[in-house]
Amino acid sequence: MSVAAVVPAAGSGTRLGAGAPKAFVPLAGVPIVVRAVDGLLRSGAVDEVVVAVPEALLEHARELLGGRPVAVLAGGAERTATVRRALDLLRRPHDVAQRQGGPSGDGPPDIVLVHDAARPLTPPALIAAVVAAVRAGNPAVVPALPLADTVKRVAGSTVESTVDRSALRAVQTPQGFALDLLRAAYAASGVDAIATDDAGLVERMGEKVVTIPGDPLAFKVTTPWDLRIAELLLEGS
Ligand code: C5P
């Protein structure tokens, strides 16, 4: 079973405020997206990678990622649109995909991972564990961590209720799917559908999604604080 990974890296990174799209911000000298892609390849569980970046940075991304089994395409306005475009590239027949700089395998892969570029320190072992869980017969797999903080529902600044956190999980990427299932989930959702993760679209179809233990190192770099933490973690490693 061949495995492809889709890496949405087309976000603007406004919350990071680094003056460049987040995926292209250097983390200890190496752009975040390069770290994310190299982690996927180092896992030994991924055959090919499709990276979706802002249109203006297509050529720059191709240069940064040169020499790797990676296809680069332009993403969309929302993460969901970005992933949809990348899945379309995977779906194309072999020769068409190749003409467009796409994956060079024999036809579409059987398993697809979707992995945020913004999670540059994700351990390769977690990536391999997600693939292993899909191979073991789970068509939709997400890494998840319990919540440490108490969680409250609020209206404006007023607390309405306290949520029972024992049944809540913070969900990370990579998320792994049987390719046919993820394709079906995107097909069933409208082109304007927005989901904050890919498993959300699978859930909307009523299909089962299972969790495996996540890893704190798979945290998403969103704010300057996160970037600093990532730098410190790399210094200490
Ligand atoms: O904004 P957020 O941190 O939730 O984005 C998660 C991932 O989705 C990031 O890697 C970002 O680059 C990507 N993204 C994208 N296309 C968009 C918006 C976000 O590929 N239009």
What does this protein structure show overall?
Keywords: Isoprene biosynthesis, Nucleotidyltransferase, Transferase. It catalyses: 2-C-methyl-D-erythritol 4-phosphate + CTP + H(+) = 4-CDP-2-C-methyl-D-erythritol + diphosphate. It is a single chain. Strands 1, 4, 5, 6, 7, 10, 11 and 12 form an eight-stranded mixed sheet that branches. This protein has a two-stranded antiparallel ribbon with strand order 2-3. The chain has a two-stranded antiparallel sheet with strand order 8-9. The two termini are 34 Å apart. The longest helix has 13 residues, at 79-91. It has helices at residues 32-42, 58-64, 79-91, 94-99, 124-135, 179-188, 199-204, 224-235, and strands spanning 3-8, 26-27, 30-31, 48-53, 70-74, 111-114, 140-146, 151-155, 158-163, 169-171, 175-178, 210-213. The chain is α/β, with parallel strands linked by helices and 237 residues long. The chain has a single domain, classed as Spore Coat Polysaccharide Biosynthesis Protein SpsA, Chain A. The chain has eight helices and twelve strands. The structure holds cytidine-5'-monophosphate. Cytidine-5'-monophosphate binds next to α3.
